[in-house]
């Protein structure tokens, strides 16, 4: 039985092989592995892609959040609003800085930070950190208005949303990561724009903030042996920048294919069983890093698909406020009920540019097969 992976990294490499191999050979020949010219070239190209004034390459998406919060002065005693339904990397940097994540419940339709839930914590937080979950922008106007009224910065976790778009009330379109003060991206291998290891970037149109982040990422230095502040070892590797520059050329094309596949899933799975399919509000254009549906049969359907050679997944089965690492914050089941429902019911189906129409039909047929029996 052929297996359909959740993410097909070998197929992605095969699609980009010639360009990547040439780019890597160039770095190897030059032997400038730390802050080589490819880093600056990628930063400029990615800033242009996002529509931002500046992009700073960093070591990972987690580092992007860490450096962004550090550059804003977040520290001990502060609180940062974080959605409860996301990967732990959104909250970890808050804790590293001695601050406290203030977990916020999520929107039942999208899984993104709920603006109404955010209102209840705004009097306590120093920053708001929403996540463009699964590649769909959150409701930026409502969240941004709340953050502005509270006088705190909006930092976007755009780790899953490279190229996703949001339509402002005036009709103008902005890309994920550029609405707030700072936008944080991950280039983990399975992302829409994936490196060959850990890598990330921060985008902003604030030149002073960009320089502060660049300095923090490189040991706080101003010259080779002069260090203005205590910094971190969080630079983007030249090899990763070379890979990313090649793959960035086809990112828009890959996002279009993801949207085609998402539309096909919606068409073929509409009305099947108790499935709740991903929604896309009219003012948002997702890039489907993941195609996540909800069902009360999640665990049984997951087992059924895996038995058929289909590698479905769960993103994310434990909400952050109930993670053992955050037990000291004192949360209990029932505190953030919508995030907890998402954690119980979410199921990710395979989606990536190399997924064929035939493979998608196989996934769909197995989902139908399961619900035909229950």
Explain how this protein is built.
The chain has 374 residues and is α/β, with parallel strands linked by helices. It folds into two domains: 9-104 and 113-248, Aspartate Aminotransferase, domain 2 (3-Layer(aba) Sandwich); 251-373, Aspartate Aminotransferase, domain 1, CATH 3.90.1150. Helix content is 39%, strand content 14%. The protein contains twelve helices and 14 strands. It has helices at 9-30, 37-50, 61-71, 92-96, 115-119, 140-150, 207-217, 238-248, 251-269, 298-307, 337-345, 357-373, and strands at 54-58, 79-83, 100-104, 127-128, 155-157, 165-167, 173-175, 182-186, 200-204, 221-223, 226-227, 284-285, 291-294, 346-349. The strands form five sheets. It has a four-stranded mixed β-sheet, sandwiched between helices. A three-stranded parallel β-sheet has the order 3-2-4. Strands 7-6-12 form a three-stranded antiparallel β-sheet, with no helix packed on it. The longest helix is centred in the N-terminal third of the chain and has 22 residues, at 9-30. The radius of gyration is 21 Å and the shape is globular. The protein starts with 8 loop residues before the first helix and ends with a helix. The mean pLDDT is 97.
Draw up the topology in text.
Blueprint: H1 9-30, H2 37-50, E1 54-58, H3 61-71, E2 79-83, H4 92-96, E3 100-104, H5 115-119, E4 127-128, H6 140-150, E5 155-157, E6 165-167, E7 173-175, E8 182-186, E9 200-204, H7 207-217, E10 221-223, E11 226-227, H8 238-248, H9 251-269, E12 284-285, E13 291-294, H10 298-307, H11 337-345, E14 346-349, H12 357-373
Parallel strand pairs: 2-3, 2-4, 5-8
Antiparallel strand pairs: 1-9, 6-7, 6-12, 8-9, 10-11, 13-14
Helix pairs in contact: 1-8, 2-8, 3-7, 9-12
